[in-house]
Design a protein that fits this description.
By secondary structure, the protein is an alpha/beta fold. 35% of the residues lie in helices and 15% in strands. It has five helices and five strands. Strands 3-2-1-4-5 form a five-stranded parallel β-sheet, with helices on both faces. Helix 1 packs across helix 2. The longest helix is centred in the N-terminal third of the chain and has 19 residues, at 27-45. The protein is elongated and about 50 Å long. Residues 131-135 and 152-156 have low confidence and may be disordered.
Length: 156
């Protein structure tokens, strides 16, 4: 049985305008831009335009969260606060361009996010949407509209 899907080694494009030359970018990296890059860009794009100092909270410092940081930085946005429960991911988020990071396990999470933002939070992009941080955006950032949840919860 043949299925179209994400594990193909080739793709057939009906028209040449559907293709782009990725130049010297490693094909393995270029392939991720069509998935995680577009997902992150779509979410971040819903917040634009925003001033460089407006606070944006990114929940989740995995591949999507890191892509969102890079996209926001490409739009000259600097006040990016990242929330995650993994200290290694938070360190990488800072290296990627986040201004501040907050441990998602903090007892006073709302206060920590507010302090890290040091400005009104104009939007939250939640790439986790798991049961642990569910409602984090709305409880931590009650005036932050819009909030975009892109992750999914899997019941076990």
């Amino acid at each position: 049985m043949l299925k179209s899907g994400g594990y193909g080694t080739h793709v057939i494009a009906e028209r040449p305008e559907h293709l782009i030359d990725f130049g010297t970018v490693d094909p393995a990296l270029a392939a991720t831009y069509a998935c995680s890059g577009v997902t992150a860009y779509s979410a971040v794009g819903k917040l634009l335009p925003i001033a460089a100092e407006d606070a944006v909270v990114i929940i989740g410092a995995g591949g999507l969260g890191l892509a969102a940081i890079k996209i926001l930085r490409a739009f000259n946005h600097f006040n990016i606060v990242v929330v995650d429960v993994n200290s290694d991911k938070l360190r990488i988020a800072l290296e990627a361009g986040a201004r501040n990071c907050v441990d998602g396990r903090a007892e006073d999470l709302t206060l920590q996010i507010s302090k890290a933002a040091a400005a009104p939070i104009i939007g939250v992009v939640d790439f986790v949407a798991s049961s642990a941080p569910r409602g984090l955006g709305s409880t931590s950032c009650p005036k932050a509209e819009p909030m975009f949840q892109l992750g999914s919860t899997v019941a076990t």
